[in-house]
Amino acid sequence: MSVINPDFVEEMKLFGEDIALACFNCGTCAAICPLIADHFPRKMIRYIQIGARDRIMDQAQDLWKCLHCGLCTQTCPRGANPGEIILSLKRYVVENWRRS
Ligand code: SF4
Ligand code: SF4
After folding, report:
1. Eight-state DSSP code of residue 22
2. What is the pLDDT of residues 11-65, one digit of tens each?
3. In the chain, where are the structural domains located?
């Protein structure tokens, strides 16, 4: 069972992420991502929104599959910059790995 952390959105601001709440989960980024795997990157953004930190840590290896091609950022209709959110999540994981 995943533990929900309602402060996670605020915590992510320390790692350069402050726009995840703009995402309305349309799935455009997941449709265009060349990884075409398991709703990435949309699912990671949703995990931030609901504070599912444990899910992010459990699936952290997926963050390092990102090619940083920018396609998701270019096509996001909300300007949520999903590519940059993935970078912020990588910074978070590197900093917090030992306490996960
Ligand atoms: S394309 Fe933008 S608004 Fe749509 S799910 Fe991805 S990040 Fe969210
Ligand atoms: S930047 Fe990363 S998450 Fe975005 S479309 Fe490219 S590979 Fe997928």
Report:
1. G
2. 999 999 899 999 999 999 999 999 878 999 999 999 999 999 999 999 999 999 9
3. 8-99
What is the position in ligand 2's atom list of the atom closest to the CA of 82? 4
- Amino acid (one-letter) located at 45: I
pTM: 0.93
Least distant ligand from the CA of 81: 1
Task: Concatenate the DSSP letters of all residues of 58-90 into one string.
Answer: HTGGGGGG-----HHHHH-TT---HHHHHHHHH
Quickly tell me which residue has 């993935």 as its tokens: 86
Q: In degrees, to the nearest 5, what angle opens at C-alpha 53 toward C-alphas 94 and 21?
A: 105
Q: Is 68 in the pocket of ligand 2 (CB under 6 A)?
A: yes
C-beta separation of 52 from 24 below 8 A: no
